[in-house]
C-alpha cells in the first residue's frame, strides 16, 4: 500500500529503489512484530493491552515529526523511527540514498535481530508443541 500511495502521489523522491527497499523492510519489521506478539498473546484482553502499549511503540516516531518541540533524540528510541525517518527524508525532503544509508543500515540490523528472535521463539514453541 505504501508503494501504491507513493506511486499515485509521485512522491518516490530521488531514489525510488531505496524507497521500495525501506518500505519492504518496514513491512518485514511489522510482520516480525506481529509474529512475536502472536507467540506471547494468549487471549483478547492481553491483545488489547498489548495494542495500547504497542501503539506507543509504533506511532511514537510520528509524535517527533508532528511536534517540533519534542527533542529529536526521542525518535531514535523507537524501532519504527528507522522506517519513518528515511521515508520522510526521501519523499518530502528529496534527499538521495546516501543521506538515508545510515538509517537503512540500522533498520536492516533491527530486522535481522528480530528475525533471529522470531526463529528462536518458533523453534522453542514447535518443540513444546511436539512434547504435548
Give the H and E element order.
HHHHH
The geometry reads as: globular
Return the domain count: 1
Q: How many β-strands, per DSSP?
A: 0
Strand content: under 5%
Tell me about the biggest sheet?
A: none
Radius of gyration, rounded? 17 Å
Helical percent range?
A: over 70%
| Helical stretch tally | 5
Span between N and C termini?
Answer: 40 Å
Q: What integer is the average pLDDT?
A: 85
Class of secondary structure makeup: mainly alpha
- Uncertain segments are none
Architecture overview:
It is a single chain. The model has no long low-confidence stretch (mean pLDDT 85). The protein has 132 residues and is mostly helical. The longest helix has 35 residues, at 97-131. Helices cover 79% and strands 0% of the residues. The chain has one domain. The chain starts with a helix and ends with a helix. α4 (81-93) runs antiparallel to α5 (97-131). The chain is built from five helices and no strands.
Features of the shown structure:
globular; 5 helices; mainly alpha; 132 residues
How are the elements arranged and paired?
Elements: H1 2-9, H2 16-40, H3 44-66, H4 81-93, H5 97-131
Helix pairs in contact: 2-4, 2-5, 4-5
At a glance:
The protein has 132 residues and is an all-alpha fold.
Amino acid at each position: 500500500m505504501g508503494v501504491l500511495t507513493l506511486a499515485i502521489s509521485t512522491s518516490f523522491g530521488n531514489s525510488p529503489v531505496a524507497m521500495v527497499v525501506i518500505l519492504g523492510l518496514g513491512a518485514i519489521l511489522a510482520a516480525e512484530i506481529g509474529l512475536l506478539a502472536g507467540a506471547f498473546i494468549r487471549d483478547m484482553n492481553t491483545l488489547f493491552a498489548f495494542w495500547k502499549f504497542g501503539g506507543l511503540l509504533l506511532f511514537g516516531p510520528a509524535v517527533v515529526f508532528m511536534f517540533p518541540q519534542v527533542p529529536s533524540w526521542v525518535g531514535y528510541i523507537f524501532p519504527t523511527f528507522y522506517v519513518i525517518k528515511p521515508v520522510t527524508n526521501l519523499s518530502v525532503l528529496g534527499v538521495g540514498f546516501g543521506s538515508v544509508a545510515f538509517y537503512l543500515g540500522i533498520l536492516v540490523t533491527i530486522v535481522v535481530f528480530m528475525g533471529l528472535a522470531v526463529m528462536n521463539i518458533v523453534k522453542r514453541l514447535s518443540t513444546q508443541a511436539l512434547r504435548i
